[in-house]
């Protein structure tokens, strides 16, 4: 059964922790401690206000509040709640858009994945126009970037600690074992950096969701050009290839491409 409730206290804590980390980083780099305190309290108050509006059934006002928060910080719980608000309003395109955004940050979250599946089941189009990812991406697809960073730090510290320890021991066997730790830790750390790079590249792939009720796919970025495929409908996921003025070029099967008006889609 789909869970259309806004996130509970556990997710608020996660929101606050992510928010605190982001603002702390900005403040440490800029020295604006007062700005940190003010920004944190403002966003936390907005988050509580949006939750209250959602619980009262004022979904349009709640969506506006969540949109304001999402413009300041990228947070999976905020996108999830925003998706729920839009789903309640019957705006399936915007709901799917924000569930997809939440999924990028919380790829293993059961509620996000389930609600996304329920929303997409109501789409007119039973397909997405995206290129299939490589098989290797399945190995790291369930890991968000911050977890890949933490996993990569373990072999880094093992290698660094072993390298330092080599300088303080005269035991040849121990030094040889430490060299193996440095080698293995270093290789593993470099591998984790490669995986992180691939993950960030995947996150930054130009995907979008059709938010218009219907979008015509044309052969050229011109309203007078011929349509070359069936129209796309609200909620369909597409992959962008190029942006030109008020048009976007999209991927089509068999290495073909077509053009949509830019106001018919929103980027994930």
Structure description:
- With 268 residues, the chain is α+β, with helices and mostly antiparallel strands.
- It has three domains: 9-120, Alpha Horseshoe (Serine Threonine Protein Phosphatase 5, Tetratricopeptide repeat), CATH 1.25.40.10; 140-194; 207-267, SH3 Domains (SH3 type barrels, Roll), CATH 2.30.30.40.
- It is 57% helix and 12% strand.
- It contains nine helices and seven strands; from the N terminus they run αααααααααβββββββ.
- The protein has helices at residues 9-30, 33-55, 59-70, 76-88, 92-105, 110-120, 137-140, 145-166, 172-203; strands spanning 207-210, 214-215, 232-233, 237-244, 247-252, 256-261, 265-267.
- The strands form two sheets. Strands 6-5-4-1-7 form a five-stranded antiparallel sheet. Strands 2-3 form a two-stranded antiparallel sheet.
- A hairpin with a 3-residue loop joins strand 5 (247-252) and strand 6.
- Helix 1 packs antiparallel against helix 2 and helix 3 runs antiparallel to helix 4.
- The longest helix has 32 residues, at 172-203.
- The radius of gyration is 23 Å and the shape is globular.
- The model is unreliable at 24-36 (pLDDT under 50).
CATH class of the largest domain: Mainly Alpha
Total individual domains? 3
Question: Could you say what the CATH topology of the largest domain is called?
Answer: Serine Threonine Protein Phosphatase 5, Tetratricopeptide repeat
Superfamily (CATH H level) name of the largest domain:
Tetratricopeptide repeat domain
Radius of gyration of CA atoms, rounded to a whole number: 23 Å
Strand content: 5-15%
Largest sheet, order of strands side by side? 6-5-4-1-7
- Which residues sit in consecutive blocks of at least 5 with pLDDT less than 50? 24-36
The biggest beta sheet, please?
5 strands, antiparallel
Number of helices: 9
Distance between the termini: 25 Å
Q: Mean pLDDT, rounded to whole units?
A: 84
Helix percentage: 55-70%
CATH architecture of the largest domain: Alpha Horseshoe
- Sum up the overall morphology in one term: globular
Q: Please report the total strand number as a whole number.
A: 7
């Amino acid at each position: 059964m789909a869970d259309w409730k806004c996130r509970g206290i556990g997710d608020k804590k996660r929101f606050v922790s992510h928010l605190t980390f982001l603002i702390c980083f900005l403040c440490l780099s800029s020295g604006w401690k007062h700005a940190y305190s003010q920004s944190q309290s403002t966003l936390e108050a907005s988050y509580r206000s949006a939750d209250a509006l959602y619980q009262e059934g004022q979904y349009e006002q709640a969506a506006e509040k969540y949109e304001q928060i999402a413009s300041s910080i990228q947070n999976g719980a905020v996108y999830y709640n925003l998706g729920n608000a839009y789903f309640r309003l019957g705006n399936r395109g915007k709901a799917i858009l924000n569930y997809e955004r939440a999924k990028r940050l919380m790829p293993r979250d059961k509620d996000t994945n389930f609600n996304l599946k329920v929303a997409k089941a109501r789409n007119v189009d039973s397909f997405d126009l995206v290129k299939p990812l490589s098989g290797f991406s399945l190995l790291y697809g369930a890991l968000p970037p911050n977890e890949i960073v933490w996993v990569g730090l373990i072999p880094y510290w093992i290698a660094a600690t072993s390298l330092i320890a080599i300088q303080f021991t005269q035991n040849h066997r121990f030094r040889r074992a430490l060299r193996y730790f440095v080698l293995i830790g270093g290789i593993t750390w470099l591998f984790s950096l490669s995986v992180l790079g691939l993950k960030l590249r995947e996150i930054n792939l130009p995907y979008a969701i059709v938010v218009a009720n219907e979008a015509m796919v044309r052969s050229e970025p011109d309203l007078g050009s011929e349509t070359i495929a069936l129209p796309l409908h609200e909620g369909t996921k597409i992959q962008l290839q190029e942006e030109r003025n008020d048009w976007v070029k999209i991927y089509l099967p068999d290495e073909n491409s077509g053009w949509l008006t830019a106001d018919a889609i929103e980027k994930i």
